[in-house]
């Protein structure tokens, strides 16, 4: 399908994928093809309260299956299980932890087709992206951190006097991870892999919109041979599960990826309980600057990736694009032409875009589109519902956007691009930083001096130069300001899951002298 500013909508039928397990079960015939229970102590159990919730196919709005809901009593049981497991897991040889993590990566690779299909069914992202981006990066992530399990070093400290001092890096303890719905399986890997390598135990709470791949991952964790309680998985809701973990007195660390508003709640809960360690990867309103000397074709391609990849449901989305007035018209003309070629529809077909993850997210994004029009921005492409069924929104481009418009200030988390113009480079630097967020930023220029000035002055955790949304497990990721605390990925993430213990020996005694 193509996109114009009209009421034209596409129509298609979703074919439910055939998901099979080792027993050859078919999800089109039997919901038991999906794991729907809680994983506690390597056993699949119903929630104590017997509550369930439905998970929805965003491509059709139809119910996929019902999943057991974890609540406070389930959290307490899981935490006790994780604490008991930690006392042994923390002393397990690093090489043994390494081998288990590598075995898990192998199992994910063996089941990558099923995992990608399940991710697309539950999240709505195109199958090509689920397989070639999400699952591929999950495998790489587990293998990368397996290598850290037996390479966690302390340091010898030079100190005054007759002393010897050194440090040990010990596992943090029982950790909780509350993960989002935009990259369900990948965010689970980002949290689990380094925690397990460090010797921590983990309680994983997947987003209630997308629990299915986390539960399938749990089956693979058990199959890989991880001891009971090392990983527990609790599908549920924020207030009655995630919030309980954040407040729990026997959880040592909580990691959260999601909205800034919920990040505030997580940090408050940690502060009001046991002052547990907190890491937060939160929202963004990332600027992408297109200079007058930029390669416009490459800038157009990057801008599309920056805003339309994953239906715009990316925390680093370059939703504020500042284009120099000399190249504005050329950039917009080429951008519109390229965007019209994007395809949207059944995510199991060969398309670029699927639906938003839920009706709630669809309404939020559509509300921002309406707000942009009301405040005077020019919607030159898209801005409409993409299909009668499901939660599709056409890729949308606004021009004539001012800095004080809502769509230029607030995180939209959808396929909505705002184009702003600038004349002076110093001025655009100030405007790029005029936000409470600081997750990412980008620039396209052929002037290396300009690029380095930008990366020095822009307040963002990641800066891309002549590229955008390029990720690797070896590079740290996190934000400035209200975009979060701490760094995930790369070696830096190991600091989140370890404590530094300082040791000092007194040497001035008879046994230390010849």
Would you write up a description of this structure?
36% of the residues lie in helices and 20% in strands. The strands form 6 sheets. It has a 7-stranded mixed β-sheet with strand order 14-15-16-13-12-18-19, sandwiched between helices. Strands 9-8-7-10-11-21 form a 6-stranded mixed β-sheet, with helices on both faces. Strands 5-6-22 form a 3-stranded antiparallel β-sheet, with no helix packed on it. The protein contains 14 helices and 22 strands. Helix 3 (112-123) crosses helix 4 (127-146), helix 4 (127-146) packs parallel to helix 5 and helix 9 (296-308) packs across helix 10 (328-340). The chain is an alpha/beta fold. The relative contact order is 0.14. The chain is globular.
Break the fold down into its secondary structure elements and pairings:
Layout: E1 38-40, E2 43-45, E3 52-57, E4 62-68, H1 72-89, H2 94-110, H3 112-123, H4 127-146, E5 156-157, E6 163-171, E7 174-178, H5 184-198, E8 201-205, H6 212-224, E9 231-233, H7 238-247, E10 253-257, H8 260-272, E11 277-281, E12 287-290, H9 296-308, E13 320-324, H10 328-340, H11 359-374, E14 378-381, E15 396-399, H12 406-409, E16 416-422, H13 425-433, E17 437-438, E18 440-444, H14 448-457, E19 462-465, E20 480-481, E21 484-485, E22 498-506
Parallel strand pairs: 7-8, 7-10, 8-9, 10-11, 12-13, 12-18, 13-16, 15-16, 18-19
Antiparallel strand pairs: 1-2, 3-4, 5-6, 6-22, 11-21, 14-15, 17-20
Distance between the termini: 85 Å
Number of helices: 14
Shape: globular
What strand order characterises the main sheet? 14-15-16-13-12-18-19
Number of strand elements: 22
Main beta-sheet annotation: 7 strands, mixed
**Which structural class do you get from the secondary structure elements?**
alpha/beta
Helix fraction, binned, reads 25-40%
* Percentage of β-strand residues: 15-25%
What is the average of the pLDDT values? 93
Question: In terms of per-residue confidence, which ranges show pLDDT below 50 for 5 or more consecutive residues?
Answer: 1-32
Q: Kindly provide the radius of gyration, computed on alpha-carbon positions and rounded to a whole number of angstroms.
A: 24 Å
């Amino acid at each position: 399908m193509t996109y114009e500013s009209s009421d034209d909508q596409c129509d298609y039928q979703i074919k439910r994928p055939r998901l099979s397990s080792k027993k050859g079960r078919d999800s089109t015939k039997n919901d038991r093809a999906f794991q729907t229970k809680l994983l506690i102590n390597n056993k699949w159990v119903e929630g104590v309260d017997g509550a369930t919730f439905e998970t929805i196919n965003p491509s059709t709005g139809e119910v996929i299956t019902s999943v057991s809901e974890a609540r406070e009593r389930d959290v307490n049981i899981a935490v006790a299980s994780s604490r008991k497991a930690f006392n042994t897991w923390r002393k397990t040889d690093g090489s043994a932890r390494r081998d288990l993590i590598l075995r898990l990566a192998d199992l994910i690779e063996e089941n990558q087709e099923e995992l990608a299909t399940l991710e697309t069914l539950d999240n709505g992202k195109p199958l090509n992206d689920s397989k070639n981006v999400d699952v591929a990066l999950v495998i790489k992530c587990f293998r990368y951190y397996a290598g850290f399990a037996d390479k966690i070093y302390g340091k010898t400290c030079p100190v005054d006097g007759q002393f010897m001092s050194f440090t040990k890096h010990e596992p943090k303890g029982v950790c909780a991870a509350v993960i989002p719905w935009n990259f369900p399986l990948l965010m689970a890997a980002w949290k689990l892999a380094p925690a397990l390598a460090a010797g921590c135990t983990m309680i994983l709470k997947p987003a209630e919109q997308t629990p299915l791949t986390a539960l399938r991952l749990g089956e693979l964790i058990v199959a890989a041979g991880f001891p009971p309680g090392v990983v527990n998985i609790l599908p549920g809701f924020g207030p009655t599960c995630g919030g309980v973990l954040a407040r729990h007195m026997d959880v040592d660390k909580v990691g959260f990826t999601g909205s800034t508003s919920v990040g505030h709640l997580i940090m408050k809960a940690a502060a009001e309980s046991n002052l547990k360690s907190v890491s937060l990867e939160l929202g963004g309103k990332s600027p992408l600057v297109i200079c007058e000397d930029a390669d416009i074709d490459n800038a157009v391609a990057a801008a599309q990736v920056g805003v339309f990849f994953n239906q715009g449901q990316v925390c680093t989305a370059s939703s504020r694009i500042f284009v120099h007035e000399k190249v504005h018209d050329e950039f917009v003309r080429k951008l519109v032409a390229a965007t019209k070629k994007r395809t949207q529809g059944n995510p199991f077909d060969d398309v670029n875009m699927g639906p938003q993850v839920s009706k709630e997210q669809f309404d939020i994004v559509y509300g921002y589109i309406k707000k942009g029009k009301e405040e005077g921005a020019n919607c030159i492409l898209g801005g409409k519902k993409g299909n009668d069924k499901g939660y599709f929104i056409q890729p949308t481009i606004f021009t004539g956007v001012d800095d004080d418009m809502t769509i230029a200030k607030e995180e939209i988390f959808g396929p909505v691009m705002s184009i702003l113009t600038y004349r002076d480079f110093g001025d655009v630097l100030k405007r790029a930083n005029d936000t409470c967020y600081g997750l990412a930023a980008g620039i396209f220029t052929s002037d290396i001096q300009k690029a380095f000035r930008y990366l020095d002055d822009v307040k963002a955790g990641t800066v891309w130069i002549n590229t955008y949304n390029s990720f690797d497990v070896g590079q740290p990721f996190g934000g400035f300001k209200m975009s979060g605390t701490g760094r995930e990925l790369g070696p830096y993430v190991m600091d989140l899951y370890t404590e530094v213990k300082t040791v000092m020996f007194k040497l001035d005694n008879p046994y230390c002298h010849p």
